[in-house]
Every structure is written in structure tokens, then in C-alpha cells.
Amino acid sequence: MHVTPPPPPASGDDGNGPRHEDDQHAHLPYQRWDELPPVDVRIPDDLSELDAEVATYQAELRSRRRRERVDRLVPGLRRLRARRGRRHRPDLLERLDRRAQREAPAGRSRHTSGAVVALIVIVLAALGAMVPLVLAHPRPLAPRGAVPLASTSVLPGAVGGLLPDVPLSTARTSRPATDLRPALIVLLPVACECPRAIHEIVSQTREGRPIPTYLVAPWTDDPSLERLVRQPDAAAGLAVGYNDPGASLSRLYRADPRQPTLLLVAMDGRLVHPPRTFTVGDRLEGWLGALPGR
Description:
By secondary structure, the protein is of the alpha/beta class. The protein has 8 helices and 9 strands. It has a 5-stranded mixed beta sheet, with helices on one face.
């Protein structure tokens, strides 16, 4: 569409009529209509033809807002960029947004990639935050392989004999004591308040080649068992807790009623040492070193 300038002023009016202080056009360089340059303005019949220009303009606005946010978060970045004299390099969100605009099918919104990328970044950050928590609470060691029980005539309770085949239970499952091999079995006193002793025992079993460690309470639902298994100042999740409802192991091995009693069991189920009462400050290097395969 071609816009034609309006007709010149009426005769006798040279365009320099009386001046008014509030005349907003008094400063214009052109004082006569016939002196104005021709104006050629084309308005498209379908406004959708301007979609590409609008999208480009909006992308520039987003890029400018991102740069402004980064400049606010990182003091001195704008001065560094100006000093180096380099052209601003689009950030990751901007590059992905431009790629999405190129690859998006016709008729599909092109302005959602920024939100999708932000969601992905949040999920990855949450997963990254969980990694230290998982590493700080490793799972207890599982028995290494299925080795047949030793064939021995030594009675249970003596060195070289097998543990009795008594059931040990948790809130979810039950297993025989003969399945705990190789192992360091810690027979707890009733309602044992001994986190420091348990912490020292578990720490020493992790020196060198670790030994699976089990805490056995002499009755069902001992309230101290869960705390000793989970507390950071006790086993810190590096031992598995079981209940011995009939206190069979404590009675057979004459466990100390005040201090933890230790049983060292080989991979074939044999008792390696006589039961040992543990007190805070004891060192177990030589005692644990007798375990075959360690």
C-alpha cells in the first residue's frame, strides 16, 4: 500500500504560520507537506506472515533477559566481556531454544524448550544431591558365594563347630544362624546401650578386607537394636540386625550380660575362635586376621 502525502497548505499559507509555544512540530526539519519524502508502507493481508519476525524478536528479548540475569548473578562479567571485546556467546538455554525452533514441526509451539530444559536441570540437580547420601550409607556386605557347610563332629558351641541351626528374625524375614557366614556376629546384651563399642567393632571390621557384621539381640523387638544398626555413632548402617527370640546363641556361647560378645565364623560355618567379650578400646587386628581368606 502506497501512502500519498496530504495536499499542500492553502494559498497564502507558506507552512510558516503563526508560531505557538506548545507547537510539537515546530522543531521538525520539514515545514511543508510537499517537502516530506515519499513513504511506502506495505501491510500484509495475512498477519501470520509476521510470525518469523515476531519469533526472532521474542528470542532476542529472551536472550537479553538471560544476559541481564547472568550479569546480576556474576558481578564483573559484563566488564570482562567488554574488556575482551568478544561477542557474547549464547548460553545453553538460548542455543537449545534456537535448535528447538529450527526442528519444531509446523504448527507446534516453539517456546516450551526453555521450560523443558529447566525441568531437566532441576531433576539432574536433585539426583546429584542424592549421590552423597547414598555413598554415606552403603549397604552391608553380603556373604561371598555359597560354600557348603563344613562336615565336622565338633559340637556346636566349641571352636571348629558349627553354629546351631536356630532361626533369627527381623520385622520382614527370618533365616537360620548357619546362613551367617563368613561373619562377625555380635551378641548384644539385653537393651544394650553401647553405641561406642559397636562403632569401634564395625570400624575395625572395615579395615583391610571387610567382614560382614551382624548384631543379634537376645529377644524379640529389642528397642535398642534398630538404633545401634542405624545411628551414625554406632554401626551407621554397616551391619545387619537380627533378633534371637529364644536367646539360643547367647545361652550357648555364654554371652556377657553387660558387654557385646563376638563370634568369628568362617565361610564354611565353623567357629574360628572362642567367644570374645569386647570392651571399648580393644583392638581386633590379630583376632580378625585368623579368619580364612582375609
